[in-house]
Design brief:
Layout (H helix, E strand, L loop, with lengths): L7 E12 L2 E12 L3 E5 L6 H9 L6 E6 L2 E2 L5 H7 L1 E4 L11 H12 L15 H10 L15 H13 L5 E5 L7 H14 L6 E5 L3 H7 L2 E6 L2 E6 L1 H6 L1 H6 L3 H6 L3
Parallel strand pairs: 3-8, 3-9, 6-7, 7-8
Antiparallel strand pairs: 1-2, 1-4, 4-5, 9-10
Helix pairs in contact: 3-4, 3-5
């Protein structure tokens, strides 16, 4: 008997989209397995942001399908995708600056548990232990009582991920999670992201420009160029692909070689 292929956590099939006369997604297909960590890379204008927006529900593609655990979510609004098991961390900040780190996570947990609109239960009393556990998992438990707006950028990135994890997603989208961070902070966050993808469990799809980081943590890499999938494979396979090297000609090619 032929073994059946493992079901994809995320499957994108033939996505196409135009903004005016510009084709930003061109018959794009990709797959992320359960527990897999997949990097989405490409030169500026390759379609990475449009792809993420289509998966997250911020952009309705002209054609194609998006499947989460086999269920078609192409027409679902972002909040319904969240309930279906998809979470997204945006490149720009998405936490409540005046709330403490703990309160941000408690608010997300309350919403995930369906208790957000229970005014007789103070937010400070909600999911205290669970919020603490998430902050500890993200390495910022010691900052739980500080206002989110006062946290340094590396801690804010970790808090944003903690807030996303409050819904216990099956697929996590990370949009340039290490952008703007110092080298040591980037390495620490990269190691954390590597731990988030669990065998048979939550999958992670992330956009990243630093190929050294991609090579260090990704199971698979999908390369976009002009809205289409140019290549896909392990970091080593992608690094050696002549078409990828041509697309990264110049400064980007030096980055992919680590120069």
């Amino acid at each position: 008997m032929t073994a059946q292929p493992e079901a994809a956590r995320l499957e994108v099939v033939g996505l196409g989209h135009r903004f005016g006369g510009n084709l930003v997604l061109d018959d794009l297909s990709l797959r992320v397995g359960a527990g897999e960590l997949v990097a989405l890379i490409g030169p500026n204008g390759a379609g990475k942001s449009s792809c993420f927006a289509a998966i997250g529900g911020q952009l309705r593609p002209d054609r194609g399908r998006i499947l989460l655990d086999g269920a078609d979510i192409t027409a679902l609004a972002p909040e319904r995708r969240a309930r279906a098991g998809l979470a997204r961390c945006f490149q720009t900040g998405s936490v409540f600056a005046s709330m403490s780190a703990r309160e941000n996570v408690q608010t997300a947990l309350s919403a995930a548990h369906g208790s957000f609109w229970r005014p007789w239960r103070p937010a400070a009393d909600c999911a205290v232990a669970e919020a603490g556990a998430l902050l500890d998992e993200l390495g910022i438990a010691d900052l739980a009582g500080r206002a989110a707006g006062s946290l340094p950028p590396p801690a804010i990135r970790r808090l944003e991920i903690a807030v996303a994890l409050a819904a216990r997603p099956r697929l996590l989208l990370l949009d340039e999670p290490t952008a703007g961070l110092a080298s040591a902070d980037r390495a620490g966050l990269a190691a954390l992201i590597r731990r988030l993808a669990r065998p048979g469990g939550m999958a992670v799809l992330f956009v990243e420009h630093d190929f050294d980081m991609v090579a260090a943590i990704a199971d698979q890499v999908v390369v976009l160029d002009r809205g289409a999938r140019l290549a896909a494979g392990t970091p080593g396979e992608v690094r050696a692909d002549p078409a990828v090297r041509a697309a990264y000609f110049g400064e980007a090619a030096n980055r992919i070689d680590g120069r």
